[in-house]
Amino acid sequence: MAALTTNVVPLTGLRFDTLLTAAAGGGDDCATGAGVLLIVKNGDASSHTVTLATPGTLDGDLAVADRTITVAAGASTAIPITERYRNPSTGRCAITYDGVTSVTVGVVRVATS
After folding, report:
1. Kind plus residue range of the DSSP H or E element containing 93
2. Distance of CA 85 to the CA centre of its chain
């Protein structure tokens, strides 16, 4: 599992396509929080599914289902990584992919002031 670096987007903007790295076959993890986005670029000819682990429970024992996002062939998708996905033991969001061929990822956080 690779730890993705969070890149802060300044008010003047940020070119993020140069920040994308290959998705790790064993999954990745990243920071969580307000304004944090996982950018997924799918350069493959078929769609891919990204899964965000949701470590929380309701009523103490009901597991919250993981979030799955389909990224269409040739498309790029921005996925909010809120505190809901924060693993209490690592402080980060665990991310897996159904396939990593031609999939690149990056994490950005929008500056608030």
Report:
1. strand 93-97
2. 10
